[in-house]
Amino acid sequence: MRHKILSEGAKELSYEIREIVKKAEQIQKHGRQIYWENIGDPVQKNNPVPAWMREIISSLTLDEKTYRYCHSKGIPETREFLAELNNKRGGAQITADDILFFNGLGDGIAKLYQFINSNLRVIGPSPAYSTHSSAEAAHANSTPITYKLDPDNHWYPDLDDLYNKVKYNPNVIGILIINPDNPTGMVYPLDALKRIVEIAREFKLLLISDEIYLNITYNGAKAYSLAEVIEDLPGISMKGISKEFPWPGSRCGWMEFYNRKKYPDFDKFCSALENAKMIEVCSTTLPQLAIPLIMGDPRYSLYRKELNEKIGLRSKKISSILSQVPELRFNETYGAFYNTIIFKDDVLSPSQTLPIDNISIKNMVESWVSEPGVDLDKRFVYYLLGAKGVCVVPISSFCSDLKGFRVTLLEEDEHTLEHVFTTIKNSIQEYLKS
């Protein structure tokens, strides 16, 4: 070729949550049953969209406007509905013009980092959600910049680490919050959010909050939205229905812009995002039409409350099983539907294994773990997958120096849930003794 086509930043684009599926599918072909704990798809875990929601969606398919292009920024009535929901929280106030729809938050995240000056950086939490960290690093042709979430303090953000990294890196232009957090299941405390706002004010930064799980909290927790704490600073909240309805196949998410008119440069950035969507014409129409009909239905809040309580009970069950393993640094979760489990220092070694009864699977796993640069937690994940058919995601793949794995809290069947996590517990103990 005349020139090298691929950007240097492309090497940062990775998504282990899906990559592990490729290996699990290879193992599945050799007859091993797979227990999928890698991805947060409630529908895949037997939590279907309720019948009354499907009836609303079905009725919309009979309406001709469902098949038209919609407004480039999103259906006006839906944006007005969502602006009102935000404004009821009593924080930063917005109008329908401050909302922009995307084909899922993945689309929105990609656009967000695409239009930030390539010399500037957004610092995000670590362990990091791959979609954010990969897109941010790719835009900058560099590795991600992160602040630590502390596994020895409920996974709360290390605010001193954040402050120092912002102070001594003048290229940082924004702070990313994921609240509730993926992959840890942590919910940011109110005082931590207020301190992050103070840091943003001191260094004149943009605040970005991924709030896809904002309404998925349990066991007494409350997630505060960015709008409730941001005051007069510039900010973007990112929301969607993939997890909340749940309707992951809808690919429907949106951004809310806070205080854009107070900051001309930020206003221009928001306009660039709007213009990018205008070039694409619009986002998908059907799920946008469904949002006010479903969220505005009196059955919705009760449905969400009951579902959150069920997730909370599963969180407690998982805690009762895995917290028994002394070699783990374990935290209960209070939001989203994930838990990140960390091995204590120096308990993993490159000689540990699990017995695999199928020779073909054993050969595959041994070839994977013998590849150069395989992290110790990934090695455990591969053996767990090959020996027991449990598919989890290594935490080293979440832009972290910690060693562990992420699981979901989505298994609806109580007996399967207990079987899977007892299997994980027993496998850890067997692996560490090998």
Question: What keywords describe this structure?
Answer:
434 residues; alpha/beta; Aspartate Aminotransferase, domain 1; Aspartate Aminotransferase, domain 2; eight-stranded mixed β-sheet; four-stranded antiparallel β-sheet; 14 strands; globular
Q: How many separate structural domains? A: 2
The residue fraction in helices comes out at: 40-55%
Q: Under the CATH scheme, which architecture of the largest domain would be assigned?
A: 3-Layer(aba) Sandwich
Indicate the radius of gyration in whole angstroms.
22 Å
Structural class: alpha/beta
Low-pLDDT ranges: none
User: How many β-strand stretches?
Assistant: 14
User: How many H/I helices?
Assistant: 14
Side-by-side strand order of the widest sheet: 2-9-8-7-6-3-4-5
Strand content: 5-15%
- What number is the mean pLDDT? 93
Q: What is the succession of H and E elements?
A: HEHHEHEHEEHEHEHEEHHHEEHHEEEH
CATH homologous superfamily grouping of the largest domain: Type I PLP-dependent aspartate aminotransferase-like (Major domain)
Shape: globular
